[in-house]
Write a structure and sequence with these properties.
Largest sheet: 2 strands, antiparallel
Structural class: alpha+beta
Number of helices: 2
Strand order of the largest sheet: 1-2
Number of strands: 4
Number of domains: 1
Distance between the termini: 25 Å
Strand content: 15-25%
Helix content: 40-55%
Order of helices and strands: HEEEEH
Radius of gyration: 22 Å
Length: 135
């Protein structure tokens, strides 16, 4: 594997982890989004990553194959004083688990950092190779 391939593969990892971070941050930002009971709850977004087809000529790495979405039902909460409450006093919240999202946030952040470190090391190695050739 060449240095450039390592940079390319780590770059695909950066892209996937960035999308994952975006999805988790959206989920966390909307964890308390309230909707009327006749509307869908905010649907959490989950990134689906897939390995690139090395046999098909790709140099490796990963890509975002799509997104999966959480349950539109959400959860009903009794809040009769809320302006969006129905006649029975219920509103709809998304079904998002804060601890799970925080765990995913940490994993995505660590993955992003690891791929960025690979790119830094490969760049340093390439620069060192150029300086060796000058002497």
């Amino acid at each position: 594997m060449s240095t450039f391939a390592a940079i390319g593969i780590a770059g695909t990892g950066l892209g996937v982890h960035r999308k994952w971070l975006d999805a988790v941050s959206d989920n966390l930002a909307n964890i308390n989004t309230v909707r009327a009971t006749d509307e869908e709850a905010f649907r959490a977004r989950y990134i689906v990553a897939q390995a690139n087809d090395v046999d098909g000529g790709d140099s490796g790495g990963v890509h975002v194959a799509g997104a999966a979405f959480g349950d539109a039902e959400g959860r009903l909460v009794y809040e009769p004083a809320h302006p969006l409450a129905d006649e029975e006093g219920y509103v709809r919240y998304p079904e998002i688990d804060m601890s799970s999202q925080m765990t995913q946030l940490i994993m995505a952040q660590r993955g992003y950092q690891a791929n960025a470190a690979v790119i830094d090391r490969a760049r340093d190695m390439y620069s060192s190779a150029l300086t060796i050739g000058r002497n």
